[in-house]
Amino acid sequence: MKARVYVMLKNGVLDPQGEAVHHALGALGFDGVESVRQGKVIELDLAEGTTEAQVGEMCEKLLANTVIESYRIEM
Amino acid sequence: MKARVYVMLKNGVLDPQGEAVHHALGALGFDGVESVRQGKVIELDLAEGTTEAQVGEMCEKLLANTVIESYRIEM
């Protein structure tokens, strides 16, 4: 079974990667870009029966730095 | 208007980041994880009227390395 975890920086946390992409897009002539935020998407191939709670525990312990990041799980 | 771009490594391309996460999950005692793939999610805040084709051009020129990565756009 597959699960997908989306990890994004919380609002208000500076996103240097997003800023760099935004700047580069401008330099390439893409003017209509107001802001860019970049995060991670983690695709997990799991044994049958793995619960969302277990995936949540993986997020809390490893996949997301919950001080500055928020995560969303798609089972 | 918002657009989201998902960038993942193409199948068959070695994913060292995914391997590292897989290994770390095992070390933390999460046994039921068969494989892990990690990619990027890029949230773009765009001027009204920006087309999917323009976002595609951003992907081709900057957001994805199309030699080893594939991308999916959500407008």
Automatic annotation (TrEMBL), chains A, B:
UniProt xrefs under InterPro entries: PurS, PurS-like_sf
Main location: cytoplasm
GO BP terms, alphabetized: 'de novo' IMP biosynthetic process
Reaction equations catalysed: N(2)-formyl-N(1)-(5-phospho-beta-D-ribosyl)glycinamide + L-glutamine + ATP + H2O = 2-formamido-N(1)-(5-O-phospho-beta-D-ribosyl)acetamidine + L-glutamate + ADP + phosphate + H(+)
Annotated localization: Cytoplasm
MF GO annotations: ATP binding; phosphoribosylformylglycinamidine synthase activity
Keyword Nucleotide-binding: yes
Enzyme class: ligase
A Pfam family: PurS
SUPFAM superfamilies: PurS-like
EC annotation from Swiss-Prot or TrEMBL: 6.3.5.3
Keywords from the named record: ATP-binding, Cytoplasm, Ligase, Nucleotide-binding, Purine biosynthesis
Pathway membership: Purine metabolism; IMP biosynthesis via de novo pathway; 5-amino-1-(5-phospho-D-ribosyl)imidazole from N(2)-formyl-N(1)-(5-phospho-D-ribosyl)glycinamide: step 1/2
Gene Ontology CC entries for this record: cytoplasm
Keyword Transcription regulation: no
Superkingdom of origin: Bacteria
Entry coiled-coil feature ranges: none
Subunit structure: Part of the FGAM synthase complex composed of 1 PurL, 1 PurQ and 2 PurS subunits.
Family as reported in the entry's similarity comment: Belongs to the PurS family.
Function: Part of the phosphoribosylformylglycinamidine synthase complex involved in the purines biosynthetic pathway. Catalyzes the ATP-dependent conversion of formylglycinamide ribonucleotide (FGAR) and glutamine to yield formylglycinamidine ribonucleotide (FGAM) and glutamate. The FGAM synthase complex is composed of three subunits. PurQ produces an ammonia molecule by converting glutamine to glutamate. PurL transfers the ammonia molecule to FGAR to form FGAM in an ATP-dependent manner.
Protein name: Phosphoribosylformylglycinamidine synthase subunit PurS
Natural source organism: Oceanicola granulosus (strain ATCC BAA-861 / DSM 15982 / KCTC 12143 / HTCC2516)
